[in-house]
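ok so for the tutorial part 2 we go from a plain amino acid sequence to predicted structure tokens. step 1 is just haveing the sequence, like this:
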Amino acid sequence: MGTLLSDKFTENLSRVTQVTGAPGARALAALDHLVVCLPAAPPAAVWRELPQGTKLKALLKRAGDGAVPAIATRLANERQTAVAVGLLAADTEPFEQLGFARKLLAPALGEKSVALGVAVLGFDASQAESIAERLVSAALAHGFALADFKSKREPPRIRSLRLLGLTRRLDLARIVAEARGNNLARWLTALPPNKLDARAYVELLEELARQQGWQFGKYGVRELAKLGAGAFLAVAQGNANDSAAIVRLRYRPEGTAAQPALGLVGKGIIFDTGGTNLKPFAAMSDMHIDMGGSAVAVGTLLALTALRWPHAADCWCAITENRTGPTAYKSQDVVTALNGKTVQTIHTDAEGRMVLADTLALASRERPRLIVDFATLTGACITAVTKRYSGVFTNRPGLHPVLKRAGRDSGERVWPFPAGKEFLEDLKSETADIAQCLPDGAGDHILAATFLNEFVPPEIPWIHVDLSAAKRKGGLAHVPTEITGFGVRYALHLLLDTEVGAL
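step 2 — the prediction. this is what the tokens look like for a chain of 503 residues:
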């Protein structure tokens, strides 16, 4: 199973270092590429801080407006270091800054195994640090290659990464931890479904737990049957074997209580055919990414572990396929979930809320102070916010401004939706306590969250992230790949930089 884990995200990515002050000749001599970010109207003093600043200033005068990078040239040193300069308005939003960083870095990372330098000059100290963080984050995302199974392995894109130009030291540990978590989420999500089947996924998580010092637990089909997890098992019953499982990973830093402060929950549908209500080809062809929510949950736990987060946390992954066949569950089946509620199934392609229902109920038994779940749950959320945003829902509506602000500040933008009791009227059932969904799918992202809310006790704060931005052609923000790993960066900002982390 080590071949699936690889060393790509468990290693320290590339060697990341920082040299404060203007870039000197010695530092530049060690670089293959230097990427420089300047204000939209660079002050005169900045050209004196740059190598061959007079030449760069002259080139910039001839540059086209809005081009990224604005200019590209080479230094007259022995290495002939390539230089790309980009201009950025100081008041640009974080999302736009991340996208700018991706474009600015793209030419430098077209080559393999480079020594890369990143310099931010001409801004005030606070602005420079924020921009530098986004440039380094973009470099670590861009320099990471997703899993492939080609016979010839390519070298890493970045051999080393050096940050230049700041007057103060940046928290590189936070940036690297976020990048590792995002890279892990993208790595797992991109794996082919015959490589990352249910057994392989469980084994991979067990191996990762050993590496990270997490406690590993597995609830297999038999254990889940004893617990009465009928909603999860309804989806799993179409599988050819009993490999489906709910996995629990426990992070317990020294000195913390056994009770978790945080429960991370992720949808791990490793392939989704739609079940008996079979998807058409176009909707099914990339359904190996339907486990992306669990990948984000695990990536978030990895990042928190790397930062030695001082609170206990559990991560729960609901791992199964959603298959069609003679034993698969059907419309109008009635099943009993782990918390005792009976569910009338309507559409077998609404399997995500079924497996999450029991997993949320199981996570709630540990009484965490906060539960956050991640899932590629509904097409309705993509319709509502496009693939540039993800939807967020909570049983604490007062958190909506905080959730939205965390998205703006992280550059992984979210839009809050309601999930109140009023919507339960639409999920009334004649044969069970609650209907799984509506046949017509109107407002399905809201109804799905309303359904899930019934499996979290009201005294536990809960946040649900519907990952409509999990996959976007051309990438998103600083991430260049179609699979974005959206959610890890957002979760860390939410937990470390807002009052949500103190719940």
